[in-house]
Structures are given as structure tokens and as C-alpha cells.
Design brief:
The protein has one helix spanning 74-77, and strands at 7-8, 28-29, 43-49, 54-59, 64-69, 93-95, 112-117, 128-132, 141-145, 170-172, 184-187, 193-197, 202-206, 212-217. It has 222 residues and is mainly beta. It has one domain. The strands form 4 sheets. A 4-stranded antiparallel β-sheet has the order 3-4-5-6, with no helix packed on it. A 4-stranded antiparallel β-sheet has the order 7-8-9-10, with no helix packed on it. The chain has a 4-stranded antiparallel β-sheet with strand order 11-12-13-14, with no helix packed on it. A hairpin with a 4-residue loop joins strand 3 and strand 4 (54-59). The longest helix is centred in the middle third of the chain and has 4 residues, at 74-77.
Length: 222
């Protein structure tokens, strides 16, 4: 799917993609984000859920994670119908900055990286992890969210509201934990989470209580 096929704007009624942004959270408002850059979304994380046949991606510039249907044909991905979930290449689910689709609610992500599904075989299976840089705060977080989905992979949504959940299921934060850009996170088979504090070149392994355990590697070179 190509996001350029799934845009909406409310500035020029003479254009085919004119509409009410708040009524179409499945589309991207072209007027959100920084203008004048070819890398206007800066996608920096991608993860595939084989059971659902869905992909989650994260956008540095738009401060959101998005889930899209992987089952579509190329033609279906360019449109708004078809595929396993009937929405073509439109957004199935989004989270992190409700104002992007004119919904009420608090912004959580301020620069986000490394969105990934937690594998079903490990604790938290089916959840989504992401590294929230929180640029300019000197305090990054790693968040785990539980998307509001049914067993078939469809996401619940009430028009005019923000996609749930209202708050992360789990957040890791610690004094000195900060990466101005980059950053990564991965759930391990033992239930702990590996964190990459990229700008300081450190790897951390933490348990669900936030206690650092295992091996902490510092001053890595890449």
C-alpha cells in the first residue's frame, strides 16, 4: 500500500480527496506534519503479524503507529475496499496522536520508533511495543499497548473518539533513559524486554516491574 493513495484534506473542495477529516480516521490528513519534505512520514518500524495478516508501522514525523491489511492485492491496496478486512489499503487502526484525525484525547508519542508486534509465543502476545523518544523531554519511554481487537482481527472504534486504549498497558521509564532519536524495543521469550537506548549506545534488559536485569551493554559501536 502507498499512503499517497489514502490521503484526505479539508482545504480545497475542488479536489477529489476533499472531506471531513474527523469522519475518516482510516485516511491520512495531508496537512498534518511538516511540509516541504519528501520524507514527510519517516516510517522507521515495521512488523508483521502472520496470524492476522496485518502489518504495524511507526511514523517518526506523525507520532503514530498504524496497522494495515497485508492480505490485499496491489490493486486493492491502492483503494478502499477488498482484502481480508474489507478496507483495502486504508488504515485499520492507529494510535499515539488523536489530533491527527481531529479526535479528542492526549498525545502519547513525541517521535516514535521500532513499532513491533509481541509474538503470540511470549508474554504479552498480540500486544504492540514502541519506543517513545519524547524528544526534548530528556526522558524516553517504551510503551506496550493492547489494541481493541476481536478474535478475527477487527478493531473496535467509536466515531468521533480516539482509538483505544486510553492509556498504555505498560510503560518503561527510568532516570537517565533517553534517546533523542532512533531507539528500539523487543519482548524476549522470558517475558523481559530488551531496550536500545540508541543515542547513548546502550542495550538494557528490563523485567515487567522495570528492574534492569540480565546484561546491560554500554558504548556499543555501530
Amino acid at each position: 500500500m502507498h499512503f499517497w493513495d489514502h490521503l484526505l484534506q479539508d482545504h480545497d473542495p475542488t479536489k477529489a480527496n476533499y472531506g471531513v477529516v474527523a469522519n475518516h480516521p482510516e485516511l491520512l490528513d495531508i496537512n498534518v506534519g511538516s511540509a516541504g519534505s519528501g520524507d514527510w512520514m519517516h516510517i522507521n518500524g515495521i512488523s508483521y503479524n502472520e496470524a492476522l495478516d496485518q502489518i504495524v508501522i511507526s511514523s517518526h514525523e506523525l507520532d503514530e503507529v498504524y496497522i494495515i491489511d497485508h492480505s490485499t492485492t496491489t490493486a486493492e491496496a491502492a483503494g478502499h475496499t477488498g482484502g481480508r478486512y474489507g478496507k483495502g489499503g486504508d488504515i485499520l487502526y492507529r494510535w499515539g496522536r488523536p489530533s491527527n484525525y481531529r479526535a479528542p484525547g492526549s498525545q502519547v508519542f513525541n517521535v516514535v520508533h521500532s513499532s513491533s508486534w509481541v509474538p503470540d509465543s511470549v508474554p504479552g502476545g498480540g500486544h504492540i511495543l514502541a519506543f517513545n523518544n519524547r524528544e526534548g523531554t530528556n526522558a524516553s519511554h517504551v510503551v506496550e499497548i493492547v489494541p481493541p481487537t476481536d478474535s478475527a482481527g477487527f478493531y473496535s472504534y467509536t466515531p468521533g473518539t480516539a482509538y483505544g486504549p486510553a492509556a498504555p498497558y505498560w510503560t518503561y521509564a527510568a532516570s537517565g533513559f533517553y534517546s533523542t532519536h532512533l531507539g528500539g524495543c523487543q519482548r524476549l521469550p522470558n517475558g523481559n524486554t530488551m531496550l536500545a537506548e540508541s543515542t547513548d549506545r546502550k542495550l538494557w534488559e528490563v523485567d515487567s516491574s522495570g528492574t534492569v536485569c540480565g546484561i546491560t551493554l554500554r558504548e556499543l559501536k555501530w
